[in-house]
Design a protein that fits this description.
Layout lengths: L9 E7 L11 E2 L5 E5 L6 E9 L21 E2 L9 E3 L5 E3 L9 E9 L6 E6 L1
Antiparallel strand pairs: 1-9, 2-8, 3-7, 3-9, 4-5, 4-6, 4-8
């Protein structure tokens, strides 16, 4: 009798500094993942994040025919199935799931739209 186990794993733990600008907020690579968690330190002064998405990660080859073609893209405001902007309220010292409305994106950005920038970085674990 053979037993097969199916498990979830953390594929990456990213550490990044969110900013108040889409241009300076780091990209969260998400093509190979289907979910994740934001870990907000107790010293964070951020209270709200607005999410932006792109169809693929910057610099990643986009097809099997021409692997030398590496495209760049523009991040757009993320909307849920009802057309409502994906905005997430957060509090210091807690962990929050990346919203399910973002799971089809290739890359994400979480821009600070509430609270202040602060000086700390934030951990993000992503799952496949």
């Amino acid at each position: 009798m053979s037993m097969v186990g199916i498990g979830r794993k953390t594929d990456a733990l990213l550490n990044m500094q969110f900013t108040t600008s889409l241009a300076t907020t780091p990209e969260i690579p998400f093509e190979d993942y289907s979910g994740g968690t934001l870990h907000i330190p107790s010293t964070s002064s951020i209270t709200q994040l607005t999410w932006y998405t792109a169809p693929f990660q910057t610099g990643r080859p986009q097809n099997d025919v021409n692997l030398s073609t590496k495209l760049t893209q523009t991040f757009q405001p993320a909307k849920d199935s009802g057309g409502v902007a994906v905005v997430q309220t957060i509090t210091a010292g807690n962990s929050f799931q990346i919203p399910a409305a973002l799971f089809g994106a290739g890359a994400l950005k979480a821009v600070i739209t509430g609270g202040s920038l602060g000086t700390g970085s934030h951990d993000i674990s992503v799952k496949s």
